[in-house]
CsbD family protein
Amino acid sequence: MADMENTFDKIKGDAKSGLGEATGNDRMKAEGRTESAAAGAKDAVQNAGDKLKGAADGVKNAFTKD
């Protein structure tokens, strides 16, 4: 599940990129895109970790005797 901090960082990056686009500031636009992409990557890594943990728990539970 997406972390709230990552979601905030993505929104902030998108806003910064949009402001850079609107003002013609290429540096701000690039920084915003970078921040947004980094937040998306962090989300992807966290989601993959959550899925892996779920799979590991499933395997562990399959071998647990009642």
In short: Helices lie at 4-23, 26-62.
